[in-house]
């Protein structure tokens, strides 16, 4: 770790170095401070350039030091030193300037960025606010409105957009540091007053107080339950209302408050969990370190339904040339139009952000009915509807057509990968790539490892996730994999609670207040109730295959609720039919309204089935729905379907709208305390012995018996004998 300098024509170049991302650790900050002081005091130096080693300016404060810090890094004084320098200081931004890294750049008098660089203040994503002057300097540079959008979302802004906003002074295609040196030389001797952002007035819209009040309302709604976005609005209010130095005190106070909250700890855990899951290891010893991913230069997608279209879009966005195949001309025409419209929307979004180059850098998409065109692609992703016979037919066909090195992936959300692999001539190259809808937006890719899948195939699929800008999580092959296996029980519990007397909107509200992006009933209505109905009909849980005489509310010895099936029989499929658990203004409408028809229907249902209803509290809703999901999470670990609790948390945080500020379901359980979760499950199972999924898992019981160890120790209590990975 070093901040070293060289002098080039009277310009001192200070390089921040702390691989891999030049995070501003205390040691690096001290080293940069020393180098800046030396440069300021050196008569031979007339200007200074600050850059980051290995093509990255800085990813901000060293998050790994957060738990060890008592008083926080002295970054603020370094930035003040830079801004107060009489010699001009230029930031040469390559790669990333994030968080404290951007704050440091904002302390510099000029900023030059490479075209591929990103800047941002993502502290909010870690449950914090920018606290090294970023939330005070940025509104003085680009105004309140643009700052608000950046700091409350933590979004990364590409160099060209940063230029448009005024965050950087120039964008260059190459030689960023040389350009910075040239600029530094040019401005030697020029007055720096207008370049010291802390001395400038904040750029406010008229009636800024009303603007901030409105922003607070919006942010509360958008990030329900999260504290740091609200603190971001507060910090901006301080920037507007207070002189810079007082604003600085407020910024620090808010940071100090957030710094001790459970939310920031959970979000930091979630950050590292995302990095952790990329480091997969199999019991065989094969791992992300040893396996070599194969290049993916071209791809094909089979099926242009909702998922196929957005998978094609996702590949094109990642600049991967893709061939999209449909079975008949009509479907191909519909699908290709839909893809082109998705791509147009993406282009428009990027153009609005100033990325004119984006249009040209989309991967080309070719539409075809001809399987022969797939001969040379590196990877095929099958995305037809969930029917094993059809999928097997496709895999058999691909096996004969694709080059032997091509990987065959399926986007199934829960069918058996091994069964599909068994009909191919390359079972070791078959893998599940379970995308989440819409695939060009959602960050999760569940990578499903079958019995035969090779480590090269796993590593290639995990690389694909990264290429698509997604988080890949490796899981084992079991019905519904990890995400949907847990989700099914959560939804089922919600439906049982309706039978017991609660209302869909009460359950949705309770879970949305907990922080979930969407409650289970609104989610079912959005996804379409008919999808689950078809699946249940296929496996004989309902419909003509159900043996005559099966009790309506029982399957085997387990409780079953036929409510969703009955709604479908009545044509209530959710949003698409204008009625489901809610009613909508029209078919395809999105505005969910409680439906008096449903209340009458439920009373009649409860009467027919002689159900005793009770007042279901918010506590019971949260506990039964979430603890049953968490309990299944422990079973998934026990079964070796996921290798650690982080995998489950990353899946839920990125694919199921779980609030990241609680860390994910397993982290949340660790905060509630495993003995509490166990006791509650025992209580609910005792009251509902016909719901065996409420019976505490043996792994949960084992952890409690081991004294409730912290989450990072859970893996060591797992036996790997049963691992499916
Ligand atoms: C107590 C009161 C004190 C009051 C005083 C207040 C003063 C406060 C002063 C300053 C505060 C500043 C706040 C911050 O700056 S918070 C940090 C903000 N920055 C971020 O959130 C950036 C996060 N990182 C990323 O987005 C990505 O990592 C990125 C930089 C884009 C690189 O992405 P990629 O190439 O995909 O690589 P990885 O994500 O896998 O990362 C590679 C490894 O680097 C580690 N990493 C990344 N960022 C950091 C960081 N900021 N600190 C430490 N480590 C970081 C990451 O974990 C990977 O590590 P590994 O390979 O071991 O897994």
TrEMBL record:
Its EC number is 1.1.1.35, 4.2.1.17, 5.3.3.8. It is found in: Peroxisome. Its main location: other. One of its GO terms (cellular component) is peroxisome. InterPro entries: 3-OHacyl-CoA_DH_NAD-bd, 3HC_DH_C, 6-PGluconate_DH-like_C_sf, ClpP/crotonase-like_dom_sf, Enoyl-CoA_hyd/isom_CS, Enoyl-CoA_hydra/iso, NAD(P)-bd_dom_sf. Keywords: Acetylation, Fatty acid metabolism, Isomerase, Lipid metabolism, Lyase, Multifunctional enzyme, NAD, Oxidoreductase, Peroxisome. Gene3D superfamilies: 1.10.1040.50, 2-enoyl-CoA Hydratase, Chain A, domain 1, NAD(P)-binding Rossmann-like Domain. It comes from the Eukaryota. Residues 299-477 form the 3-hydroxyacyl-CoA dehydrogenase NAD binding domain. It catalyses: (3Z)-hexenoyl-CoA = (2E)-hexenoyl-CoA; a 4-saturated-(3S)-3-hydroxyacyl-CoA = a (3E)-enoyl-CoA + H2O; (3S)-hydroxydecanoyl-CoA + NAD(+) = 3-oxodecanoyl-CoA + NADH + H(+); (2E)-hexadecenedioyl-CoA + H2O = (3S)-hydroxyhexadecanedioyl-CoA. GO terms for molecular function: (3S)-3-hydroxyacyl-CoA dehydrogenase (NAD+) activity; delta(3)-delta(2)-enoyl-CoA isomerase activity; enoyl-CoA hydratase activity; NAD+ binding. Pfam families: 3HCDH, 3HCDH_N, ECH_1. Pathway: Lipid metabolism; fatty acid beta-oxidation. Residues 481-584, 621-711 form the 3-hydroxyacyl-CoA dehydrogenase C-terminal domain. GO terms for biological process: fatty acid beta-oxidation. In the C-terminal section; belongs to the 3-hydroxyacyl-CoA dehydrogenase family. Belongs to the enoyl-CoA hydratase/isomerase family. PANTHER family: 3-HYDROXYACYL-COA DEHYROGENASE, PEROXISOMAL BIFUNCTIONAL ENZYME. Monomer. This is Peroxisomal bifunctional enzyme.
């Amino acid at each position: 770790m070093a901040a070293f300098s060289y002098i080039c024509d009277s310009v001192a170049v200070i390089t921040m170095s702390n691989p891999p991302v030049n995070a501003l650790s205390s040691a690096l900050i001290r080293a940069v401070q020393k180098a800046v002081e030396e440069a300021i005091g050196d008569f031979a130096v007339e200007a200074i350039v600050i850059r980051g080693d290995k093509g990255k300016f800085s990813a901000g404060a060293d998050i790994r030091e957060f738990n060890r810090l008592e008083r926080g890094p002295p970054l603020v004084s370094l930035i003040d030193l830079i801004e107060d320098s009489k010699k001009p200081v230029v930031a040469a931004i390559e790669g990333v300037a994030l968080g404290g890294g951007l704050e440091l750049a904002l302390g510099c008098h000029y900023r030059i960025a490479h075209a591929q660089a990103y800047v941002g203040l993502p502290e909010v994503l870690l449950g914090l606010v920018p606290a090294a002057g970023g939330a005070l300097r940025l509104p003085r540079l680009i105004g309140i409105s643009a700052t608000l959008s950046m700091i409350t979302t933590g979004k990364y802004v590409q160099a060209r957009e940063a230029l448009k906003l005024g965050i950087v002074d120039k964008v260059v295609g190459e030689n960023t540091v040389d350009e910075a040196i040239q600029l530094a030389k040019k401005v030697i001797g020029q007055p720096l007053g207008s370049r010291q952002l802390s001395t400038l007035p904040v750029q406010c819209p008229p009636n800024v107080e009303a603007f901030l009040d409105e922003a607070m309302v919006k942010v509360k709604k958008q990030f329900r339950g999260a504290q740091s976005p609200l603190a971001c609005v507060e910090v901006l209010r301080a920037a507007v209302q207070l002189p810079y130095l007082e604003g600085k005190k407020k910024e620090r106070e808010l940071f100090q408050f957030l710094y001790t909250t459970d939310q920031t700890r959970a979000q930091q855990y979630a950050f590292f969990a995302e990095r952790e899951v990329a480091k997969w290891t199999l019991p065989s010893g094969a791992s992300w370190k040893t396996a070599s991913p194969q290049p993916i230069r071209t791809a094909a997608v089979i099926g242009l339904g909702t998922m196929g279209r957005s998978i094609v879009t996702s590949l094109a966005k990642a600049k991967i040339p893709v061939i999209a195949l449909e079975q008949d001309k009509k479907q191909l025409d519909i699908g290709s139009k839909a893809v082109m419209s998705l791509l147009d929307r993406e282009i428009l979004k990027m153009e609005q952000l100033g990325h004119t180059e984006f249009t040209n850098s989309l991967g080309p998409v070719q539409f075809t009915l001809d399987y022969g065109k797939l001969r040379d692609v590196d990877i095929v992703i099958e995305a037809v509807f969930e029917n094993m016979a059809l999928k097997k037919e496709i895999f058999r066909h691909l096996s004969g057509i694709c080059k032997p090195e091509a990987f065959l992936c399926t986007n199934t959300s829960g069918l058996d990968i091994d069964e599909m692999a068994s009909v191919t001539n390359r079972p070791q190259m078959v893998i599940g790539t379970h995308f989440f809808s819409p695939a060009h937006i959602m960050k999760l890719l569940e990578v499903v490892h079958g019995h035969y899948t090779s480590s090269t195939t796993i590593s290639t699929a995990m690389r694909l996730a990264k290429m698509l800008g997604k988080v890949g999580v490796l899981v084992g092959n079991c019905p519904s994999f990890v995400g949907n296996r847990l989700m099914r029980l959560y939804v089922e519990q919600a439906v049982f609670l309706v039978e017991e007397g609660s209302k869909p909107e009460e359950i949705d509200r309770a879970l949305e207040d907990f922080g979930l992006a969407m409650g289970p009933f609104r989610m079912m209505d959005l996804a379409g109730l008919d999808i689950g109905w078809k699946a249940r009909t296929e496996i004989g849980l309902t419909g003509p295959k159900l043996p005559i005489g099966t009790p309506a509310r029982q399957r085997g010895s387990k409780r079953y609720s036929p409510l969703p099936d009955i709604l479908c029989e009545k044509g209530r499929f959710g949003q698409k039919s204008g009625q489901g658990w809610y009613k909508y203004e029209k078919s395809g409408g999105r505005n969910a309204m409680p439906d008096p028809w449903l209340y009458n229907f439920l009373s009649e249902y409860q009467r027919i089935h002689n159900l005793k209803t009770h007042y279901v509290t918010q506590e019971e809703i949260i506990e039964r729905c979430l603890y049953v999901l968490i309990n299944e999470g422990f079973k998934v670990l026990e079964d070796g379907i996921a290798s650690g609790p982080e995998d489950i948390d990353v899946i839920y945080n990125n694919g199921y709208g779980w609030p990241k500020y609680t860390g994910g379901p397993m982290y949340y359980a660790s905060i509630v305390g495993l003995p509490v979760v166990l006791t509650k499950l025992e209580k609910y199972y005792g009251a509902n012995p016909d719901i065996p999924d409420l019976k505490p898992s043996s792994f949960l019981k084992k952890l409690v018996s081991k004294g409730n160890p912290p989450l990072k120790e859970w893996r060591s209590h797992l036996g790997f004998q049963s691992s499916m990975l």
